[in-house]
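Fold it.
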Amino acid sequence: MIRFIIRRLLWMIPVLFFVSLVTFFLMHQAPGGPFDREDKNVDPATVAALNRRFGLDKPQYINTGAVSAAWNGGVRNPISLGRAFIDSQYGNYMLNAVQGDLGPSYRQRGKDVQDIIRQQWPYSARLGVFALIFAVVVGVPLGVIAALRQNTVVDYASLFFATVGVSLPTFITGLLVLIIFGTTLKWINITTNDWNTWKPYIAPGLVLGMATMSFITRITRTTMLEIKRQDYVRTARAKGLSENSVIVRHMLRNALIPVVTLLGPALVGLITGSVITEGIFSIPGIGGYFVESISSRDYSMIMGTTLIFATLTVLANLFVDLSYGFLDPRIRNR
């Protein structure tokens, strides 16, 4: 098990390298830069000075000019030549990133990217966790009940509910919740600024977790229907086990395996994909900063946020693989 964890953690290195390389390439294909302004004239000398200050005047990937200058200057040390070779925008950023320095934000003046993420991350994390809890607590029982009551009104109602949940866009669901429960019924405070407690996250968490809940409902129902026909379920009933014991110990436990597969990536997806929900409910999460960084060409913010999201995705998949062993002894004993 320890070797497996170490191997998966080492696998993060090429994955994050590839993600960072693709992100860096794509963001530099967009026209303009972090210090360009379309609404007013900017002195080219000022832009050049800013680019020079933040190292944006250097080559993007490799710096052959620095290697030539070092070699002509009599440098023969391989480490020094290698450092000159990667003295580029991408190379310098990644060297700083592995040391925990994600660089300064070009638009949030005086702030580093890691400080911004540290400040705004808890809001997005709370929203994502609440949305996932709602999705699991509602989705799993709904799928189990639908499978046990197949082709009944309960089954059709749960399928209809799941279909509506996955079909409605998040911004439609969010606006409906605000209008019905905020403006009309006054059940939620739509003007709150206190996002340091859990209560304000109830409504946005339900909105954000609706689609994931629908997927979990359908996956649980489908898996339960397959397991109902398995020989070991019939054997358990033939041994005289109670129906509740058969459902919980033999059917539900195996039905949770595909659900667990979904949970890790789903949590990361809920956190990273909460931009619309955060905008509707005015939650000061990381999503809004990420979208703004793309439109404003804030390269450090784009790279830093993407690397954090990619790291979370890899760790979430590792958690999923480790969880298999607790649900299926056959996997644990491999």
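The domain at 120-332 is CATH 1.10.3720.10 (MetI-like fold).
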